[in-house]
Automatic annotation (TrEMBL):
Residues 1-33 form the signal peptide. This is Deoxyribonuclease NucA/NucB domain-containing protein. Pfam families: DNase_NucA_NucB. Residues 345-425 form the Deoxyribonuclease NucA/NucB domain. Residues 80-92 have a biased composition (Low complexity). Keywords: Signal. It comes from the Bacteria. Coiled coil: none annotated. Residues 76-95 are annotated as: Disordered.
Length: 429
């Protein structure tokens, strides 16, 4: 009996020093434990997603208060130095507001990608601290995770502004939330198989920040800059020095007796491409977010390109009205992307094929001021020589046709669309 009592005491002592780690799901814990130690998860306490718990287990945890208010009532050396929280820099406020207006997309792992040069994530977390057996609840923690991303047309660089904000807590009387911690942990990878030779990315000196809630509450923002070194202009030799990289951020939460940070939560990820493509890209080098959806928008009410816009609208929505005509015809660009083609000879072949089709339908139109408008464009891999006849030609005003071509070229350079890059069409009324 004495031996059994001693073992029970030892087990309880072990439980009080076990890890407290953020889990998004129980399976994540099991998978990580098996892959790192091949041992079962330690007994103790754990943060779990409140959404994973039944409603009756959240009763009594609906009186959360702002962390600053809680800290004032639990004075300690760690909170006595607190001051007002730093505001977000002024030049980021517009993006933050737009991000909040796209809440559904912003809370995903990739966030809301505004363009090839701006992205943001605003992801709310609602965690419950409980013992690992699920018999005792020790508190609740809510906060917002923000990540603002900025890529640059003209520089092989990408910046991230990360933060933990709007922290609310509700611990039981015996638990001290001033000792709870949140961590953001960044890392990156390179897709060497899709990059040009010798791809490299230089990470910032600091990629991990694990702080007490009180530190996040007063200093919520921190900055990270990733760059890719280049070897000068090599694009004329066929090397655009493209580097395809993914930046990932994992989130951790713990209380005083936590084990080392658990990887794999993948709270945020960002696809990035660095290039030194030369004149074809506009500015000779730059960086873009690869998951951005790029659209060329034309309006049927714009007098400068209304004939081009109507033609594209018909090709996408009423292909039976377009030439060449065949049963079941469909034309890409709305749901299926188009892809840029930079080979001048192949572009010329597309135009020649399209003009021939215009001649078959309308005969000789020389001297009319009309031009043969083709869609998909000659500068796309889906042009008329692709061989599937999923294209359309129409005679339209020459100035309209040429203005539409200039708009297309502007879209290419403003978005750093390189050979093979995808984009979509959008025609408005």
């Amino acid at each position: 009996m004495k031996i059994r009592t001693t073992l029970i005491r030892l087990a309880r002592a072990t439980a009080t020093t076990a890890a407290l780690t953020l889990l998004t799901a129980a399976t994540t814990t099991a998978t990580y434990a098996a892959s790192t130690t091949n041992a079962p998860a330690p007994e103790g306490t754990v943060f779990v997603d409140a959404a994973s718990l039944p409603a009756d287990e959240l009763r009594g945890l609906d009186r959360l208060i702002p962390y600053a208010e809680y800290a004032r009532s639990h004075r300690s050396e760690s909170v006595a130095r607190q001051a007002a929280a730093d505001p977000a820099p002024g030049d980021q406020q517009d993006l933050r507001q737009q991000c909040a207006n796209h809440a559904a997309q912003a809370k995903t792992a990739t966030g809301w990608i505004k363009s090839r040069f701006e992205s943001c994530q605003k992801r709310p977390f609602d965690l419950v601290l409980r013992d690992i057996r699920g018999t005792t609840t020790l508190g609740r923690l809510k906060f917002d995770q923000w990540v603002l991303g900025f890529a640059y047309d003209g520089s092989r660089r990408v910046d991230y502004v990360a933060s933990i904000e709007n922290i609310w807590v509700e611990p039981i009387p015996t638990e001290d939330a001033t000792k709870w911690r949140i961590g953001q942990h960044f890392h990156h990878s390179i897709n060497a198989s899709k990059s040009d030779p010798d791809p490299k990315v230089t990470a910032p000196q600091t990629v991990n920040r694990d702080e007490l809630l009180g530190v996040w509450d007063t200093k919520p923002h921190w900055n990270l800059t990733y760059t890719s070194p280049d070897k000068g202009a090599l694009f004329e030799q066929g090397n655009q020095q493209r580097v395809l990289s993914t930046v990932t951020m994992d989130l951790s939460a713990s209380s005083p007796n936590s084990a080392p940070y658990m990887e794999g939560s993948n709270a945020y990820n960002s696809g990035v491409r660095y290039d030194y493509a030369g004149k074809v890209a506009g500015k000779y080098k730059g960086t873009v977010f690869t998951k951005a959806r790029v659209e060329l928008v034309m309006s049927q009410k714009d007098p400068a390109v209304n004939e081009s816009a109507v033609h594209i609208y018909d090709a996408l929505n009423r292909p039976e009205r377009t030439f060449p005509s065949w049963p079941g015809k469909s034309v890409p660009g709305a749901k299926e992307p188009l892809h840029r083609l930079v080979d001048k000879e192949k572009q010329k072949n597309n135009r020649t094929r399209s003009i021939k089709e215009c001649g078959k339908v309308w005969g000789d139109y020389a001297g009319t001021g009309l031009q043969c408008d083709e869609y998909p464009f000659a500068s796309t891999k889906e042009g008329s020589t692709k061989g599937d006849n999923r294209f359309s030609v129409r005679l339209i005003d020459g100035d309209d046709n040429e203005t539409g071509g200039r708009r297309l070229d502007q879209m290419y350079t403003l978005n750093r669309i390189l050979d093979g890059d995808a984009f979509y069409m959008k025609v408005t009324n």
